[in-house]
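Ticket #4471: structure export looks truncated?
Reporter: QA, pipeline team
Priority: medium

Steps to reproduce: submit the single chain below to the structure queue and open the exported record.
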Amino acid sequence: MPNSRLYVLAGPSGVGKGTVVNALRKMYPQVKVAVSATTRAPRPGERDGIDYYFLSEERFDKLLAADGFLEWAQVHGRARYGTLRSEVEEHSSRGEDVILEIDLAGARQIRRTHPDAHFIFLLPPSQQALEERLRGRGTEDDAEVARRLETAKIELAAAKEFEHQLINDHPEQAARELAALMGIA
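Actual output as written to the record:
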């Protein structure tokens, strides 16, 4: 992507990727974040086009067939998530840096197609903190939390694949560290 840089922020479910990115955007409103698409239903308070693009399975399939995703994955054996190619191209065509907030599978796809991107892995301060965050959201039942924690073990083991690793002990501090890595702090 000429004249722009692509940043990939990945980490397990519940680590606080969205919270850190929101803190980053409050501190640095110029930061451009690609809004992901998903086939899951919105959680309370989530808005279409702001938090995610909430797509039907059929719409997701049509975009896949048209090469409309930069990356995509089925997450936790359930909903599909992906980064719309148009979201990234819109920013890069204006020379704007863009950050993707995605999972490990998506980050690996981006590494294959955009090896010059900057890869950052967000870690929880502890396994216990990750479990507390997942349970504290109140959006998943016990079985789903257990599934996400099992997936998190695999994802955390892959942290070494990333050039940078940040611990999300305090979202504002993690956002400041992310901003420094992006060269905007």
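Status: closed, not a bug. The export was complete when the record was re-opened. Leaving a note from the reviewer for reference: Residues 73 and 105 are 6 Å apart (CA to CA).
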